[in-house]
Write a structure and sequence with these properties.
This protein is an alpha+beta fold. The protein is built from 11 helices and 10 strands. It has a 6-stranded antiparallel β-sheet, sandwiched between helices. A 4-stranded antiparallel β-sheet has the order 2-7-4-5.
Length: 301
């Protein structure tokens, strides 16, 4: 997790280390949900390829090797990655509006693709990233990255910034900022600002927030009653929930929950659920205190 001063900038940092772990080809695949985030990644050992899923259905698979130090933008569809052998690296996950503020360039440049870091950032930020990526230990690199980002973020962050734990907290804060910024506060203008800052419309962000809560519920309690979950999380019915889950994950609710529980390649879903469950528990313990007086995947500290 990022330090408090960067909580409104970085959502999390994800470390993946498969060195020395016996894995078959299927287990070396990683399935990711649709994502509104921007990612800064560096690979210390091994190689990572994106599998172009649109071509899998036709029987052909195109592999696109990812740069050793890269920036990726938001994705409107689930993505699939593959490492042919042992790999060790980290992805620092940025809120899209924060990435735009830090770089001074539109997120559209990295929308739906991954580029080498030198094509996406320059100047002081590029130097900070390079120093961090040179560290042999990615956790140490993440700490060094934060050291460099703190003064940049102090200058770039919006005045209405916050330190969100849940995606829904960030999405709500973003909508509030969009509604109070400058001239023009109509619904259409608000929606345009949100789309410009994130690449997603407000409805898609709301769907993403609900999906995050479903991941946590699956992690803590399992799948349970689908109809009851649909009602609890504000869907019109079970079919509505099914369509939205498929849009974000590529699978039906029952299928994705089964895959999360049983398949190594869906490790990111388990990590997200574990991270948010722990963060929520920590927040609850803090509030109570105030009132009373597998492979080595982890969120970097």
């Amino acid at each position: 997790m990022p330090r408090p001063a960067l909580a409104g900038c970085i959502a999390m940092a994800i470390v993946r280390d498969t060195r020395g772990v016996a894995m078959n080809d299927a287990q070396r695949v990683s399935h990711f949900p649709r994502s509104p985030y921007c990612g800064l990644s560096w690979i210390k050992e091994g190689a990572v390829f994106e599998i172009r899923t649109a071509e899998i259905d036709s029987g052909r698979v195109h592999l696109e090797r990812q740069p050793d130090i890269s920036v990726s933008g938001h994705r409107q569809n689930p993505t699939t990655m593959w490492s042919p052998a042992d790999a060790y690296g980290v992805t620092v996950v940025f809120y899209p509006d924060a990435w735009q503020a830090l770089t001074g360039s539109s997120i559209e440049f990295v929308s739906e693709r991954t580029v080498a870091v030198e094509d996406a950032v320059s100047g002081e930020l590029a130097a900070i990233v390079r120093r961090a990526a040179q560290q042999s230990d990615v956790d140490e690199g993440f700490l060094l990255l934060q050291d460099g980002l703190e003064p940049l973020w102090r200058q770039a962050r919006p005045r209405q910034g916050m330190a969100p734990v849940w995606f829904k907290d960030w999405a709500v804060a973003l909508a509030v900022r969009a509604s109070t910024l400058g001239a023009g506060r109509s619904l259409r203008q608000l929606q345009r600002r949100v789309k410009r800052w994130t690449g997603f419309n407000q409805r898609d962000l709301d769907q993403q927030a609900r999906m995050e809560q479903l991941f946590v519920r699956s992690y803590e309690e399992g799948i349970g009653d689908l109809a009851g979950l649909a009602q609890e999380f504000g869907y019109a019915d079970q079919a509505h929930m099914g369509r939205q889950v498929r849009k974000i994950t590529g699978c039906s609710p029952a299928r994705i929950m089964e895959l999360i529980e049983t398949e190594e390649s869906y490790w990111i879903y388990r990590l997200i659920g574990a991270r948010l469950s722990a963060e929520d528990a920590a927040a609850s313990l803090t509030a109570a205190s105030n009132r009373a007086g597998r492979p080595a995947d982890h969120a970097a500290k």
